[in-house]
Specification:
It is a single chain. The chain has 225 residues and is of the alpha+beta class. It has a single domain, classed as Gamma-glutamyl cyclotransferase-like (Hypothetical upf0131 protein ytfp, Roll), CATH 3.10.490. Helices cover 38% and strands 29% of the residues. The protein is built from 8 helices and 7 strands. It has helices at residues 4-9, 11-16, 28-40, 54-57, 117-128, 168-177, 185-198, 204-224, and strands at 47-51, 65-82, 93-111, 134-143, 146-155, 179-180, 183-184. The strands form 2 sheets. Strands 2-3-1-5-4 form a 5-stranded mixed sheet. Strands 6-7 form a two-stranded antiparallel ribbon. A hairpin with a 2-residue loop joins strand 4 and strand 5 (146-155). It starts with a helix and ends with a helix.
Length: 225
Amino acid sequence: MLNREVLESKLPQQLLANPELSLKILSDEELLASIKATLEQNSTNELWIFAYGSLIWNPLFDYLERCVVTLEGWQRQFCLLVPVGRGTIENPGLVLGLEPGDRCQGIAYRIAVDDNLEAELLLLWRREMIVGSYIPTWLTAKNGSREISVLTFIVNSQHRAYVNHLSREEIVTSLATAKGFLGSSAEYLSHTVQGLLAEGIEDQQLIELDHLVKHQQRQFNQDLS
């Protein structure tokens, strides 16, 4: 599983630097510049991070508090191909991105704005921003009647890893079969579903996908036996 040690060692960068992938890897200097530019856009004295995928069940950064929030006009989708981590070059996996849509419930984390902020955010940027497939964006989320300005990572629809043409069958097959050094895409999906359910959030689209993926895996195992 992805942990702080993996991010600190820059192992993902090393694996993504494979010439076969032809990906632009952002340096720490470029990531720090992105962090600075992003923080300059924050109009509040607090810093909240919105989690809609793996940050729900594996945030890695330190936080002061967390709460369930809703984003209107956005939805999570399996729309990013990953040839490393949750898949391989031969069989890329899929991970979630946030793109325009109906609504999305997730978790908002408030992190301390102190001397450790840059170091904490650098690890987050190494995780989310290393190849530029996401765009750090400030959005307004709701926790009951309270509005919170949250920093989230929306999908970069111009990135080569972005896919919006896959059929449901293709998505299920990718999730059911792809594995990488961080684990399988099926585990990523299952952990996200369970993480959401633990917070009382039922994402029916993800729950249905999880059932379909598990069914395909069972059928595949039966065919092998």
